[in-house]
Design brief:
By secondary structure, the chain is of the alpha+beta class. It is built from 1 helix and 7 strands. It has a single domain, classed as Beta Barrel (OB fold (Dihydrolipoamide Acetyltransferase, E2P)), CATH 2.40.50.
């Protein structure tokens, strides 16, 4: 009887893990999604599978990488990019942001 209860508990935990990863518990892996909103002080990521959104604060200690280039700013990120956020000192602040555009390496050319 105890082994059945232990097995059911283990299965319950394994089934709950995929939903827990977007909730901010996965500091090492980060949170993946599409940029739904961004400004100089915050970024909102939407998880495609669950439809959940999470907003992170961006501060001077946030490390931003855009299309593989370090030393960028949140203002270099645009809505629609794919991004991975690693939480910083608390779960509501981005420690690092790694954003990529769909046409990696291609930038829009501004005409005058």
């Amino acid at each position: 009887m105890k082994s059945i209860i232990a097995s059911l508990a283990a299965i319950s935990i394994l089934l709950a893990l995929p939903t827990m990863s977007f909730a901010g518990s996965g500091k090492a892996k980060g949170i993946h999604g599409k940029v739904a909103a961004v400004d100089s002080h915050s970024i909102t990521i939407k998880n495609k599978k669950s439809g959940d959104s999470k907003t992170f604060q961006v501060d001077d200690s946030t490390k931003v990488t855009v299309d593989g280039q370090d030393g960028k700013h949140a203002s270099d990120i645009t809505v629609g990019m794919k991004a991975r956020i690693t939480p910083g000192s608390n779960s509501d602040t981005a420690g690092s942001i790694d954003a990529t555009s769909k046409g990696k390496g291609k930038k829009a050319v501004q005409t005058t």
